[in-house]
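Predict the 3D structure for this chain.
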Amino acid sequence: MFEKCHKCGQGGLGCKDDYAFLKSGYWWEWRNETYKDRYKYFIKNLLASSPALDDFSIQYPFPIPTSYKCPIEGSCKGGLDSPCDKGYEGPLCGVCSSGHYKQLQTCKECPSKKWMVGQLSLIASSFLIIVAVIVWTSKKKVRKTEGRSLIDTFFSKLKIVIGFYQVAYGLMETFSYIKWPDSLQVIGKYSEILQMNVLQVAPIDCLNPGLHVDTFGNLFTTMAVNATLIGISGVAYGVFKVF
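Done. Predicted structure below.
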């Protein structure tokens, strides 16, 4: 209305009524509140039935922020203020807000503490049952010349099933930007417990909102848990061989 036309260049920008706005699925950050307030005033004057025509009102002298595509499209609402959807915050709306944790790159509401305790109890019970069965069969010294024992056959099949769901979940997590079918997402949701990732089953952020674990802390803890389990298994095997 007031000056020449410019091409609406960036992919995250939409243009209407002679001004540019941020599309949904994109994020930007203003340099300061003064720039944003000045742009709001410029738009308001553009849309007015009788706009002011002084030099201050008919031009916006500052650059519009650069738009960035959000990793999770639904987390960014767009608009001038670039708000994040519920459960997201931070740059590119890529951080889970308080009361939420990350699952398959999306922020989910924290489960109840009873549910987390139940999952941990299930993992611990399964581990104890497997150990008890192994000890019992070793004491029995089951030997079958015609083939493997029933328990060996069962564990071999169980390993294949667990391996399949672990690989399926890992693929969905790695390629989380793909829109997977709903049925596969359900499989990924319920196979999460098979990853044996304690920080995923019982996120620290959900147990205590005051504690936060970044990516490096998560990696270090996961490796430490794996090393501890391998060490305990090695010690148990050594003690078994001795006695």
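The chain has two domains: 13-97, 111-212.
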